[in-house]
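Backbone shapes recur. Consider a single case.
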Amino acid sequence: MIRREHRQSLLKIINEEAKKRGGWPIRHNAMPDHVHLLVRLPPSVKVSDYIGQVKGAAAHRVNEEIKPDCKFTWQEGYGVLTLRKDELDKVSRYIDNQETHHQTCRLSVLLEKIADDEESTPPEGG
């Protein structure tokens, strides 16, 4: 869980780690149980490697620098979307207002979807 008092430090660390690995962070925000990161990546960056490296380095730094009461770990997996340039403002606003969206239960199905095992497994032959 991401405690409120650690949220800004965590986001700073994520921003730094995203930049170190070749990304251009656009927006980021955190809820107690997940983070949204809007980042521009060059085509040469493999998304799965990038996310794994950012998550791993951020968790290590949180545990070393912030020293939370319980060891900080990420949940398994992640979600990725590609966006058109004209969608950036709308998604940025959603991320900025993430806490309000959760409080009012006005969540984006696309941005907040958590896949169950059946949905995350590709169909056979596809």
Residues 81 and 111 are 8 Å apart (CA to CA). Residues 114-126 have pLDDT under 50 and may be disordered. The helical segments are 7-20, 47-66, 88-96, 98-103, 109-112, 117-120. The radius of gyration is 15 Å.
